[in-house]
Design goal:
This protein is an all-alpha fold and about 170 residues long. The chain folds into two domains: about 55 residues, Arc Repressor Mutant, subunit A, CATH 1.10.10; about 100 residues, no CATH class. Helices cover about 70% and strands about 0% of the residues. The protein contains nine helices and no strands. Helix 1 packs across helix 4 and helix 5 packs antiparallel against helix 7. The model has no long low-confidence stretch (mean pLDDT about 90).
């Protein structure tokens, strides 16, 4: 990927996360990135192409994270690492996560395929731990993580560490 393409994607990500996907035009992305709008169309076809490229970059980063967890052998350690994920969102990753969470509310755009690998990790964990309903426990953890991530991304007051510890206690971690 060229330096200009990376700058376009970084600018688009920043604007989509800050102003919203629908409210951000390709002309604004071009202006902020210091490129022509035609260059955006040449490399990404349209605004949806920009979004798809951003989401693909995110999928690649998530694959690395999921692989690092998936290769662990101890079910409780896997569960611990999964629950801690929202707490590991670095400041430079926030625009991506803010965008992803904002897209959840835009049914015509959001694709939940990024969370499917996490479910694929969690179900065998709960099976190994002999939970009666591993799929449902998996969903519960996903909902809890989703809530923690939203709380963190919105910079709400409160102690997410205490919430994490409560979840750890629930699962005897």
């Amino acid at each position: 990927m060229t330096e200009k393409q990376e700058r376009i994607l970084e600018t688009a990500l920043s604007l989509f996360a800050k102003d919203g996907f629908s409210a951000t035009s390709t002309s604004k992305v071009a202006r902020e990135a210091g490129v022509s709008e035609g260059l955006i169309f040449r490399h990404f076809e349209n605004k949806e192409g920009l979004l798809n490229a951003i989401l693909e970059n995110g999928r690649q980063k998530l694959t690395v994270i999921f692989d690092s967890i998936h290769h662990l052998e101890e079910p409780k350690e896997i569960l611990r690492r999964v629950i801690e994920l929202p707490l590991t969102i670095d400041e430079d990753q926030r625009p991506f996560w803010k965008l992803l969470y904002a897209l959840k509310w835009q049914a015509d755009v959001y694709d939940d395929s990024m969370s499917n690998p996490m479910k694929d990790i969690l179900i065998p964990v709960f099976e190994a731990l002999n939970y009666h309903q591993p799929e449902l426990e998996s969903e519960l953890v996903m909902v809890l993580m989703d809530g923690m991530a939203s709380h963190i991304l919105l910079k709400r007051s409160g102690n997410v560490e205490d919430i994490k510890e409560l979840i750890f206690k629930k699962y005897d971690l």
